[in-house]
Amino acid sequence: MGTLCHYALFDLKPAFRLDLEQLAVRYRELARGVHPDRFADAPEREQRQALEQSAALNEAYQTLKSAPRRARYLLAISGHEVPQEITVQDPVFLLQQMQWREELEELQENADIDGIVPFKKRLKAAQASLEDDFAGCWDNPAEHEQAERLMRRMQFLDKLGQEVRQLEERLDD
Fold this sequence. Notes:
Layout: H1 6-9, H2 20-34, H3 44-65, H4 67-77, H5 91-109, H6 113-137, H7 144-172
Helix pairs in contact: 2-3, 3-4, 4-7, 5-7, 6-7
Subunit structure: Interacts with HscA and stimulates its ATPase activity.
InterPro entries: DnaJ_domain (IPR001623), HscB (IPR004640), HscB_C_sf (IPR036386), HscB_oligo_C (IPR009073), J_dom_sf (IPR036869)
Keywords: Chaperone
């Protein structure tokens, strides 16, 4: 398994559009094959290899099943080093980020459990739209900057989605 590309581990061609259910099924099949319990009686070297393969498989799966992580990974393997820190030179999106944040804070202050549902719907729609845009431009070198910009937006919305889920859990208690 070594340093095989995440896609190669799953016998997939690098692409942004993936069948996530198929990916999950394949992951479970492969994970069973390298599960450390299967190597409990094996020599230590084989146990260590199984553990490493299991970790590599898990890392690959976590990356591919997340749209923003998959986008970043695709950019990286196509030769674009994407810096870790997020500097979004994207005034339109910065403004939109502020609006999303303010809305989320209002939902939180008002403990507005009913307001979360439409907020989540809009968030999902925004994520789907970014994913479509990214799929349309990631493999065109001329559009690399746009692809990177879209990936950063995806990361932001993903983080916002996690915060919405945390808020929901707090309000449900």
